[in-house]
Design a protein that fits this description.
The structure holds two protein chains of two kinds.
Chain A lengths: L2 H32 L6 H19 L2 H22 L8 H23 L15 E4 L2 E4 H23 L1 H18 L4 H27 L5 H16 L4 H21 L4 H15 L13
Antiparallel strand pairs in A: 1-2
Helix pairs in contact in A: 1-5, 1-7, 1-8, 1-9, 2-3, 2-4, 2-7, 2-8, 3-7, 5-6, 8-9, 8-10, 9-10
Chain B lengths: L1 H34 L18 E7 L6 H17 L3 E2 L2 E9 L4 H15 L3 E4 L3 H13 L3 E4 L23 E3 L4 H14 L5 E7 L2 H16 L3 E8 L7 H8 L5 E5 L2 H13 L8 E5 L5 H7 L7 E4 L8 H14 L5 H19 L7 H9 L2 E4 L2 E5 L6 E13 L2 E13 L5
Parallel strand pairs in B: 1-3, 1-4, 4-5, 5-6, 7-8, 7-9, 9-10, 10-11
Antiparallel strand pairs in B: 2-3, 11-14, 12-13, 13-14, 14-15
Classes of the chains: A mainly alpha, B alpha/beta.
């Protein structure tokens, strides 16, 4: 591999990682707060992509979809948490099973509403061209994905560390019952967390739609990626999601290029290795059992 | 220490949780098709003196990634039967649709259901090659006539050592293609007719993609060409940019590819994004790379791609015009190649039934009648190779062009009467 190619592949890997971060951040947030692996996360992601398809078809406005899809899916999360998940609070396994049910229902409803054909949308105007990097064309949209992922990480970190909501989330992750005992409305906090996590999945769906296509089965494909990222990075922490995606994105890209026969298995091999050496993930915290 | 124990327990809890989640998902997936049978069902129309009903078991994907292919084949089947007054050779037809869910295990169960409880007179369908391979022995031992309407794995109509991974059966006919037919002729054509000297191959890393690359390579090298390198991507590779970056880092300009569906779309988009056409690279492949499902999404981005297939919607013959018109009138959408395959399956069955006056009990006579079927298909002249039961058909070399704002495959060449070399 020439140095130029290596640099371009590194960019490819980082942009894939940035997308994985947007996707995994919500999953990690929900797990950290509610101790629920939300297996409907992929379905929210899928819904985000399909909403983008409709918005772009109707209005031609990708940026409208970027605002609208997370809002709609966040609202859906705001309904699902109190209506379904709350009834099973404390029964983590049952909650996980419930999220599988939700994901199957969403996937089938998406199929009914939008059909089962494979779809694709164009890159948004202004980001559909290429710029020259090291003598070769490189798509601007991929650079946008990197910038967007980076920005989102900064925003989430600031919210997490510097705001009251962030303090509540951190407290909730540490000890939710104690937080409730202190008079915080834990129901509202959980519902909000779930909604924000769902909205982040929807946001990832919007960003990914022009690159990875829109098709039945995309929910499962990307749920697996996001699970790998949060398990590798460390469950329930923002920095874990950053670390996981920063490792898995480039690992997937260079794996495809350097050991193509092993491309699919490589990220799982990385996951196995990380779990052997650090069972809580790269930046996972050892938590006090309740 | 305690903390570590807790960590270990946590990890264990997590795996158990995920295991349960995964296994219950699998269980649900296994149950789902049974709970939601494919659309359709009985449809009987009276004729003057109707013969005994004819029951056809149609095994198609109605869920998962190939659902739209199944829908397309079902549309063609229904259209054919509607045109024939829901009867073939004076026997009112009942079609039992089942969902194979792109899963060999489900496919095998549904095939057994056709054999044991539905007791169908003949079976048709199956999109994915692994499913066709998985049910081959059950069909053969049940002496059930089966018309394969898509899966193109070479072994299904060939004699192979120990029947691995599959082999031909006197009860199995195919109205689609073998992967040899859509890959070898274009290889030879490139070397001998288009003067291409060197090709780099980039295909999906699974049975069918590998077969296609191997067949293309033997056709191309036989014609005097040279393969300079190859690359493979797993099926369902999300990100194609790394692969296209690698292709751009080597100097052979002509690329041969086998991808379909979402992979084809993502590949073509990554191709344009990296400015491959401007850098002088040319995309080529087996026809599914630029079929309608892909073209309508990538629009002009596949412009100039050369591919081979036994049909194109623009094919200029009376049967194709009639078929495309009727299909468009019924469903207000263009037919795709999968619809043609199912349509020809119905045509072959129809003509063979007429030849035996509707008698499906004498299997040998019915098989002989199918072997002798010859008709004008939307793809051109259609007949089965009596040796293998694979179709003998013309292969068209097609180039993607934008005509009045729509990207279509235009015919630029033809390799006549391609027969699979299987025995």
């Amino acid at each position: 591999m020439t140095p130029e190619t290596a640099v371009v592949q590194a960019l490819n890997g980082i942009s894939f990682g940035a997308l994985l971060f947007i996707l995994a951040a919500g999953l990690s947030l929900i797990f950290g707060m509610m101790d629920v692996v939300n297996l409907a996360h992929g379905a929210f992601y899928m819904l985000g992509a399909y909403i983008t398809l409709t918005v772009v078809q109707r209005t031609g406005q990708f940026w409208l979809a970027l605002v609208l899809a997370p809002l709609l899916i966040g609202a859906l999360g705001l309904v699902i948490e109190p209506l379904l998940l709350r009834r099973l609070r404390g029964r983590h396994l049952d909650q996980v099973l419930l999220t599988i049910g939700v994901s199957l229902v969403i996937a089938d409803l998406v199929g009914l509403t939008w059909g089962r054909e494979i779809r694709s949308i164009s890159f948004p105007a202004g980001l559909d061209h290429a710029i020259t990097i090291l003598g070769g064309d490189y798509p601007v949209y991929r650079l946008f994905v990197i910038a967007f992922g980076g920005l989102l990480a900064v925003v989430l970190a600031v919210v997490h560390r510097r705001t009251r909501v962030g303090a509540l989330i951190r407290a909730g992750v540490d000890d939710a019952p104690m937080l409730a005992a202190l008079g915080v409305d834990i129901d509202r906090l959980f519902a909000t967390t779930f909604a924000v996590g769902a909205a982040l999945a929807g946001l990832a769906g919007v960003i990914a739609a022009p690159v990875f296509g829109i098709y039945p089965g995309m929910d499962v494909d990307y749920l697996i990626y996001s699970l790998v990222v949060v398990v590798v990075g460390g469950l329930g922490t923002l920095s874990g999601a950053v670390a996981g995606s920063a490792l898995i994105g480039p690992a997937d890209t260079f794996g495809k290029v350097l050991v193509p026969q092993f491309a699919l298995a490589l990220i799982f091999a990385v996951m196995a290795l990380v779990l052997l050496l650090r069972p809580t993930g790269l930046l996972g915290r050892i938590r006090i059992a309740r | 220490m305690d903390e570590n124990k807790d960590a270990a327990r946590r990890a264990y809890r997590l795996t158990r949780r995920r295991f349960l989640a995964a296994s219950s998902a699998a269980a649900l997936a296994a149950c789902a098709p049974a709970a939601t049978p494919g659309p359709g069902g009985a449809s009987v129309a009276p004729t003057a003196t109707p013969g005994p009903p004819l029951k056809i078991g149609m095994l198609l994907p109605f869920t998962k990634v190939y659902a739209e292919l199944g829908n397309s084949m079902q549309r063609a089947t229904k259209l054919y039967l509607k045109q024939k007054g829901e009867a073939l050779a004076n026997r009112p037809v009942t079609v039992v649709y089942e969902d194979e869910a792109n899963d060999p295990v489900v496919g095998a169960q549904k095939t057994q259901k056709f054999i044991d409880s539905d007791r169908v007179d003949l079976m048709m369908g199956i999109v994915a090659t692994p499913i066709a391979y998985a049910v081959r022995n059950a069909i053969d031992s049940a002496k059930l006539i089966f018309i394969e309407t898509n899966a193109g794995g070479n072994a299904l109509t060939r004699t192979t050592t120990n029947c691995t991974p599959s082999c031909k059966s006197k009860y199995i006919f195919r109205t689609s293609f073998s992967s040899y037919q859509i890959s070898y002729p274009i290889g030879e054509y490139f070397a001998t007719q288009m003067g291409v000297k060197e090709v780099f191959t980039f295909v999906a890393d699974y049975g069918f993609g590998n077969e296609s690359a191997a067949d293309f390579t033997s056709g191309f090298t036989k014609g005097g060409g040279k393969i300079t390198g190859s690359l493979k991507a797993p099926l369902g590779s999300a990100d194609f940019l790394p692969y296209v970056t690698q292709i751009k880092a080597q100097n052979t300009k002509d690329i041969y590819s086998f991808f379909s569906g979402t992979d084809a779309i993502n590949y073509i988009k990554a191709w344009t994004q990296l400015g491959m056409p401007a850098a002088g690279y040319k995309m080529n492949g087996a026809g599914f790379l630029t079929e309608q499902d892909v073209l309508k999404e990538v629009k002009d981005q596949a412009n100039g791609a050369t591919t081979s297939l036994f049909w194109a919607v623009t094919l200029d013959n009376a049967e194709n015009k009639a078929f495309v018109d009727a299909y468009q009138k019924e469903y207000t959408l263009l037919p795709d190649v999968f619809a043609v395959q199912a349509w020809d399956g119905m045509q072959a069955v129809d003509l063979a039934l007429q030849a035996v006056k509707g008698d499906t009990n004498n299997k040998d006579a019915f098989i002989a009648a199918l072997e002798n079927v010859k008709f004008k298909s939307p793809r051109g002249d259609f007949e089965f190779d009596k040796e293998t039961h694979n179709p003998i058909q013309d292969i068209y070399i097609r180039e993607v062009k934008v005509q009045s704002g729509q990207a279509v495959n235009t015919i630029v060449g033809k390799v006549a009467r391609v027969t699979d070399p299987g025995k």
